[in-house]
């Protein structure tokens, strides 16, 4: 199976968006980028991976968190925090890596505002993976090894962190369907069904692009 499309996947915690992206990339035979983006960013920036890891898709501190959950964006005036500077550095490095990966050809990028970073490219399908809470709790406990106690609170906190990071650097709302081309529920379609849905959607858009280019 071949493709001329780049796929970006933002995902609710526990929705198995990572697995969906990994299987999608494997089926298409294209590169897959998720946490390894942090390794590449750290190497490019000449810092320890452990340093960047603490800022990956997370708000930088409680003060910043309270702000980014509102209407502030990275284009705003919050520039004094050393934590924020490190977070900005990570974002810039990750954005470079994502753009370079897209320039090389079709790939799958999970998280890290990929949908926004590549927003001007016509060959990108922007996907958001969601699932109901029962599915997410089961996946978090049985597949990710998280403790069952207060699991729903833990999932909600992870979502808030991802949302605050995305909202801050994009000026958009992480869970807003208008930020994406396709929203798919793994609790409804299953992981394989979600992959098939994304593939079918991507193929349809490729056909439309081919028709327009004639």
Written overview of the protein:
This is Cytidylate kinase-like family protein. Pfam families: Cytidylate_kin2. By secondary structure, the protein is of the alpha/beta class. It has one domain: Rossmann fold. Helix content is 56%, strand content 10%. It is built from nine helices and five strands, in the order βαβααααβαβααβα. It has helices at 17-28, 36-45, 49-53, 62-68, 82-104, 114-117, 133-143, 151-170, 186-213, and strands at residues 6-11, 32-33, 108-110, 124-130, 182-185. Strands 2-3-1-4-5 form a five-stranded parallel sheet, covered by helices on one side. Helix 1 (17-28) packs across helix 9 (186-213). Mean pLDDT is 86; it is low at 61-84.
């Amino acid at each position: 199976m071949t493709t001329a499309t780049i796929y970006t996947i933002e995902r609710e915690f526990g929705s198995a968006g990572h697995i969906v992206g990994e299987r999608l990339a494997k089926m298409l035979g294209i590169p897959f980028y998720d946490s390894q983006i942090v390794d590449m960013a750290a190497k490019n920036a000449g810092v320890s991976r452990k340093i960047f890891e603490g800022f990956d898709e997370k708000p930088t501190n409680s003060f910043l968190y309270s702000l980014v959950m509102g209407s502030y964006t990275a284009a705003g005036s919050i520039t004094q925090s050393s934590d924020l500077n490190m977070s900005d550095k990570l974002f810039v490095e990750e954005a470079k890596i994502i753009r370079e990966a897209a320039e090389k050809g079709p790939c799958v990028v999970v998280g890290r505002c990929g949908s926004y970073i590549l927003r001007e490219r016509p060959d990108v399908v922007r996907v958001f993976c969601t699932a109901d809470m029962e599915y997410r709790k089961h996946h978090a406990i049985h597949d990710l090894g998280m403790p069952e106690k207060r699991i729903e609170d833990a999932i909600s906190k992870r979502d808030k962190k991802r949302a605050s990071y995305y909202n801050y650097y994009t000026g958009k709302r992480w869970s807003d369907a208008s930020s994406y081309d396709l929203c798919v529920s793994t609790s409804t379609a299953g992981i394989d069904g979600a992959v098939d849905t994304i593939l079918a959607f991507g193929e349809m858009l490729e056909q439309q692009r081919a028709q327009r280019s004639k």
